[in-house]
Amino acid sequence: MKAPAIAPCLGVKDTGASVGFYEKLGFTALPAGDDPNDDIRSLLFGDAFALMVYRDAHLRDWLPVLKDTPVGAFGMFYLAVDDFDAYVAGIRPLVDAVKEGTHDGQPIFYFADPDGYVIGVVQKREW
Fold first, then answer.
1. Confidence class of residue 65 from pLDDT cuts 50, 70 and 90?
2. Distance from C-alpha of 50 to C-alpha of 30, rounded to nearest angstrom
3. Global pTM?
4. Which of 43, 113, 107 is nearest to 121 (CA)?
5. Which is more confidently placed, 90 or 7?
6. pLDDT > 90? residue 101
7. Does residue 103 fall inside a structural domain?
8. CA 124, 27, 103 angle in degrees (round to 5)?
9. How far apart are CA 26 and CA 35, in angstroms?
10. Quick count: other Cβ atoms within 10 Å of Cβ 31?
11. Domain residues for 19?
């Protein structure tokens, strides 16, 4: 697997709960490392790296500059899928839509994960 140019690592309240949420949406979690005190998990979408989740307390210990940063983010992430309609139909019962519609003629579907991170689903396309 090719490493991405930028790899998001999200601080989350409960790594297991976040992994369970993303697995229901079609992601695959790679096993945690050998350190039982380090619960960082890499998530794949299809066969490509998508993001990492890391318990907020552990992330704050790792990078003390984040000690006062709340879980969740101001911003959003986009998930490009092969078949927008089929994917959204499959996850719609599992998530609460925060916005949906079109932008530049393309359908868009936004939902929030358990920690408040907003993810916008879009049709995969070449730039």
1. confident
2. 11
3. 0.83
4. 107
5. 90
6. yes
7. yes
8. 30
9. 26
10. 7
11. 9-123
